[in-house]
User: Fold Probable branched-chain-amino-acid aminotransferase from Terrihabitans soli.
Amino acid sequence: RIVYVNGRYVPYAEASVHIDDRGFQFADGVYEVCEVRDGRIIDEPRHFARLKRSLDELKMAAPMNEACLSVVLTEVLHRNRVRSGLVYLQVTRGVARREFFFPADDVPPTLVVTARSVDPLKGESVAAEGIRVVTVPENRWERVDIKTTGLLPNVLAKMQAKAAGAREAWFVDRDGFITEGGSSNAWIISEEDVLITRPAESGILRGVTRTTLIDLARKEGLKVEERAFTVTEAKVAKEAFITSATTIVTPVIELDSAAIGGGKPGPLVKRLRSGFHAIAAWRSI
Ligand code: PMP
Assistant:
């Protein structure tokens, strides 16, 4: 297995970053995860746009331009013969003696790129069954719109889900509204087949899969309402699901032990899942 670290393609076992890397010291880094399907990176331009936004918000320099970054991602995929799976990239503010203030401008950012094959049948079998979700109090900082590697609240929330036999945790804000999942966006479908998901302006990461699914739904003539919804509303929803680059569209069949849609994946979520790659593949040509 080969990975890319700061200008070099190296064997996984030999890859390393410095102990004074700000990613390690302060989680002073941002990342992206893209789905790879039939050897192609799904929605790469949207991932690059979000990466740029994360970097800008943190006043962090880009490690290279997007055309070069695209070449590196593709090269890592090729060297690992990944046709189906994911590619991960992380940028940190680089290596400097531990000090809260940003280092001097001439400190180069760290860039790490890895890729891994994932059997597409695995995701299909999870989606065919549907997943359980538990709610947890929102305890993250206000800048969850930035895709930083500071994910400890997400790790703890997902561990709580795992302990309860669930696959995802949905954060709930002080007013009882669901924000998003530990590593996914949250959606419900109303009795009238309206897709409801929280606006990306507050409390969530603007998921690339979320954006592409909104495109798809509207193209299919479905209504999408970007508004916050409560736990109570979600528990009585017709269908519910999550989106992310690694799960695409995956049905939620249980929320805090309340069955959704009779505890089985519903028809609309199934249709959205199967329609997703048609539009995503077309978008990434
Ligand atoms: N919210 C959070 C907190 C996430 O970690 C992710 C996955 N990166 C998402 C939403 C979904 O984003 P995307 O569709 O771009 O994978």
Notes: The pocket of 4'-deoxy-4'-aminopyridoxal-5'-phosphate is lined by residues 33, 180, 183-185, 205, 207-210, 243-245 (CB under 6 Å). The mean pLDDT is 97.
